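User: Hey, my collaborator sent me this sequence without any context and asked if I could get a structure. I don't really work with proteins. Can you help?
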Amino acid sequence: REAHPEIYKNSSQKWRDNNKEKSKISMWKYDGMKDDDWPSVYEMFIKENECWICGINFNETTRKKCLDHDHDTGELRYVCCSRCNVWIIG
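Assistant: No problem. I've predicted the 3D structure and written it out in structure-token form, which is a compact way to encode the shape of the chain:
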């Protein structure tokens, strides 16, 4: 990795591109989110087109879609845009 970081980065990106569900779920777990049915959460997240807080359509904006959670308990709360996730919820 240290000698050829670009090869490692390209390999990692290729895996993430080919394993979108596994990659996204593993990041949610790494961030401390907890749920018993990750495939259903992923499916709901992918299908959601609007921020649950401000209502902005994800297809009409450059804002990133986020899965918000309580940092103390890991409980999932919202599918929201990056602005609501950071500025409104904190």
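In plain terms: Residues 5-18 form the longest helix (14 residues). You can pass these tokens on to your collaborator as they are.
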